[in-house]
């Protein structure tokens, strides 16, 4: 069994660029639990709470029951479910899963392979992270799950629509277009001639067919890049900045984020392609959390 290929080909709803990270999140969670206790089983009641929290933080705004991936991941050959009546899932009903004492864990063949090859777990983790989440979220997600993430390594993926190569020119093209300043706050720090803390952010994530192109990129400081990928910040149809109503902060730095609501993008320079509406719409539908805050009125 090629477990990397199996991991890369999880069956999930992907039509129209819709994000469905439910199975990847459950598999990452299961890998983390295996790392801590290779023989342990995961009661549905425990997974329901943990996976529910992960879906709120790292999934799209729409709500989905953790029962669906708990049941359907069995079909991918990497997961198994048992109840008090024996092997097999009782279905996707929350009540049935709770009442039957359902437990899940990685499939037996996969557990055997993970024991034999210690490098397999970090490689599977890298495949899941690279295919379903932007790099800015990898460390935070692993910390939230309790998964020890090893230094980044190149993992070859099976041939397919999501096995394309990144364009190394993306960062330079985007930073040049926005004149080396954060498009949200104007930060333009340098050490000598080298920009520090500036990054090229994909509006539509590369993992979801977002092109390495200026019309899909923003030059953002490290903080605003992470907030953009977490759905705290977004873009309105008129290219003004949106801030999620779910984001709260009382600190001066947090207030600076709240004050971005309704403000204009800084750049790109004249004659450069602006964010394409289809990429902006994808981010608004698949990443941005909740409703945008109204613009803060200007003082007297």
Automatic annotation (TrEMBL):
Domain of life (superkingdom): Bacteria
InterPro entries, A to Z: DNA-SBD_ScoMcrA, HNH_nuc, PT_DNA_restrict
GO molecular function, one term: endonuclease activity
Residue ranges of domain ScoMcrA-like DNA sulfur-binding in the record: 4-148
All residue ranges annotated as the HNH nuclease domain in the record: 182-234
CDD domains in alphabetical order: HNHc
Keywords, alphabetical: Endonuclease, Hydrolase, Nuclease
NCBIfam families: PT-DNA_restrict (NF045808)
Stated name of the protein: Restriction endonuclease
Organism encoding this protein: Streptacidiphilus pinicola
